[in-house]
Amino acid sequence: MSAVLTIDNLYKRFPIAGSKQVVQAINGVSLTIEPGETLGLVGESGSGKTTVGRCIVGLIEPTAGTIRFRGKDLAQRHQHKSELGGKIQFVFQEPNESLDPRMKIGDTISEPLLPLKYDRETRRRRTADALRLVRLDPDLLDAYPSELSSGQQQRVGIARAMVTEPELVVLDEPTSALDPTARAEIIDLLRRIQRERNTAYLFISHDLSTVRFISHRVAVMYLGMIVEQGSAETVFNRPQHPYSSGLLSSVMLPHPHLKIESTVSLKGEIPSPINLPKGCFLASRCPFVIDRCRHEMPPAETVGERHTVHCFRHSDVAATVPASDTFNVFMKEAERILGRAKPGGLASSLQ
Amino acid sequence: MRILAYLAKRLVFVIPQLLGIVLVSFLLVKSIPGDPAVLMLGPTATPSAIAALREQLGLDQPLYMQFLIYVRNLLHGDLGTSWQTTRPVLEDLLQRFPATLELVTFSLLLAILVGVTLGVYAARNPRGWVARVSDLYGLSAGALPDFWFALVLIFVFYTVLGWAPAPLGRIDMIVIPPIPVTGILTIDALLAGDPEAFWSACSHLALPVLTLGLLNAGPILKITQSTMETMLESDFSRYEVLCGVPQNLVVRHALRNALPSIVTIISVLYGFLIGGAVLVEIVFSWGGAGQYAVQGVLNSDIYPVLGFVLFSAIFSLIVYIAVDLVYFLLDPRISN
After folding, report:
1. What does the alpha-carbon distance between residue B178 and residue B288 come to, in Å, rounded to a whole number?
2. Is A115 on the interface with B (CB under 8 A)?
3. DSSP assignment of A49-114, as one string?
4. What is the pLDDT of residues B150-182, one digit of tens each?
5. Is 0.90 surpassed by the pTM of this model?
6. What is the complex's ipTM, to 2 decimals?
7. Which of B243, B245, B262, B334 to mutate to test the interface with A (most CBs of A within 10 A)?
8. B195 with B279, same domain?
9. Co-location of B195 and B64 in the same domain
């Protein structure tokens, strides 16, 4: 397989100032992303999903493990500078804070091209293309970010990422700062771009309904570990890890008639990432807990095609939790609503 | 166009602002105990002579009348007469205010150079040695009294090393000062094409400018450092870093966003230093406006004090309006 991105056994420890203790932010994350695929990375805040994204783009140095992009080790990203240039991109959560308030939109979008040594004419053309791609008015090239709505600002953030024609875009909660309409537009836009350009996405979010809608595969993170990873349909409909199941049962779908039924409820609070418990990190909160869980970390078990789970009792979980197709119904309903708004997609009809 | 409309609006408000400042300072100065008539005539004066002088000075009038007379004279360009110098206050101030302005302006330029440079370098590497030196510098600059620092500089550079001229005024006594045009000696010397006077004025400026500049670089440094750190940690800077934008460009963009805060602290310092430089003026016998005003306060000579307040107020208002114009240039969000 020629994966775009392969992460193998990634660890990240943050030292705490004035203390010998460390925050164990990522604890052995492994994942792959194929070309044109969206991997949804979900989990509560503090689960380490943003840290994973930032390690990939080089904003954070990993403590251990390897990240390979097209087979090239990103630890030596400076050696591969010319081949990597602009191939991995990033979209921030807060559209407002991620744009320089004093820089015109046109300059903001073309900025990632500067280190790539394109001439002025190419930069101008690519900027215009990127603006068209995200369906922003060309008049906005001379505007400043403060003159734009947050939905438009996030489109600028996406245009800026797409201008270098990346193969992988890390999207760090790109829709969580937006209202539902703008969110739907952005998701629609991202899916269209993916179809046109075969771009792979790592979509980091805690908004599970959005993740279900955009992702081909899903990785569920808990305390710096991916506890379950598989196709979006399988994980959402038949979760085999108690944490995935618990997380899914907390989802409120943006539809009045759709409710998720689940028998798994997690007790207590998420443990501190400074003193991680021995054994399974979920043991103190898990209704399926057995003695073994408290002493031994469950290894990754393959339970289906590209579907892995870290749980001794995954088959019991799968047997207890009723399979649900609520998310499928939601998907169909959402597609129907989006489809009805065509031609031009929901995005253009709402402008 | 928007800028012009804004300026017009600001200028309309200047008149009531100045009137308010004059009223408050008049009442405050009048409430200082001490009778100028007594001080002017000395300890041997007879009560009748004092009463006569009080009447002549208008001090027997009720306070509001005194104020109205003062304002009426102001409108005719008469700021009163100082009984110490026996000269019109306006003449005195026109001679002394440029001296203070020259000192303060050069000091502020030095403070900006030191503060902004150190602040930017410290923010680029918050755990580096520049950042540590800056922390120590900011702390000591805030803690050292300026007159004491001035005395240390005089001791080292005049008494011990002999590099600096004697701390007596703005120019060597044997050098003929240039014809006053602006009242600012360095500029006047340049206008007159007199290198000797220019050099002498510069050498006299050196130590007081070092004193005020180095000490007032502290707040500029602190503001620059903290705003720049925030800007460099912001998502838009991080994005530039991850795209491989050269560091100098990242810093320049961050600085562009940090400038409004830096300009604000500079403008506040500028207004403050006009009066705040007085101790340093005294140490160097600068003969500036601050020194003149303090003499006035100590001797119940109220017109120099009021004149100084008025001059400083007008100066501050000009600085603030200028700063607002700079904001227009710096921040597209305001001008749009």
Report:
1. 17
2. yes
3. HHHHHHHHHTSS--SEEEEEETTEEGGGTTTTHHHHTTTEEEE-S-HHHHS-TTS-HHHHHHGGGG
4. 899 999 999 899 888 888 888 888 888 888 888
5. no
6. 0.85
7. B243
8. yes
9. no
